[in-house]
Amino acid sequence: MPDISYQPLFDLLENTDLAPWLETLPTRLEKSIHGANNGHLPKWLDALDALPDVAPSHFDQQSGAVTIGQNSDLSAEQQSALRETLMAFHPWRKGPWNFFGIGIDTEWRSDWKWKRIQKAISPLKDRLVLDIGSGNGYYSYRMAAEGAKLALGTDPYLLYVMQSFIARRYLPQNHPAWVIPFGIEQLPPSLPVFDTVFSMGVLYHRRSPLDHLIELREMLRPGGELVLETLVVEGPEGHALLPRGRYAKMRNTWFIPSCLTLERWLERCGFKSIRLADLSDTTTAEQRSTDWMTFDSLETFLDPNDPSKTIEGYPGPKRALFVAEA
Prior knowledge:
Blueprint: H1 7-13, H2 25-34, H3 41-49, E1 59-60, E2 66-68, H4 76-87, E3 94-95, E4 97-99, E5 102-104, E6 108-109, H5 110-118, E7 128-132, H6 138-145, E8 150-154, H7 158-168, E9 177-180, E10 194-200, H8 209-218, E11 220-232, E12 240-241, E13 256-257, H9 259-268, E14 272-281, H10 298-301, E15 302-303, E16 306-310, E17 318-325
Parallel strand pairs: 2-4, 3-6, 7-8, 7-10, 8-9, 10-11
Antiparallel strand pairs: 1-2, 4-5, 11-17, 12-13, 14-17, 15-16
Helix pairs in contact: 3-7
């Protein structure tokens, strides 16, 4: 059976302050991938092996879609086979991507969020960057395009990790964008070496949001930058929504604070130079079902008679982007 390799990542880490992690990382990665007994893994590995063995004539990670190759690199038969292979990794949630002229219209227009982020954060050139809950690594490639020395995504869902290896199949081995199959709990505690840490769409899934913020701070070097994007609600300092059950049909949704409350949380957890960089309503233009993500999406999560509210009657999704210094 074909397999994937993290050896180039290990080689990269050897020359960083993350080198001590190599004592345990290879074994833990092996356990997370092959020890989880995921019944889909053989299918995904076979699909990775079925990718066309061609050298892409074009590579672009700075435009909206992370793009590898173009139409003319493949025959019509290869194009058809590639589309079927890529569909084996459904659902595609973060993107867009384009592989040899096949555009993957993902559930999220993640490029829109990245435009909001780009103008708000410190330059990523030569930085060690960590993205908690990264999904398939779309943002890691955008971070790499900004010159990051390492753009390391972590996500516990193995499908998304497998999606990230599609692009890596055609990249130089020393390319700095990676996704590893870990949740934040599986990262070494108190690892204050990252220059920038991203947490996007994670905070409201944590039962203890302040513990999450402290964990993020402990991964940053002194003076490092936190980029925090999360759901918020309108309200005064001290206000936070705790849904009775689901929020916009999402399971495991806990505290959704007001912006003033979140600012106070960040302050209490040791962050400084805190600023609200963006506040945006999430719309069905940015999050929706597509041919590449055919499950329900935002349109069905909202009240059909009042789209300013969720199906449960809560305020509709509004996302805040905070930047702070450790």
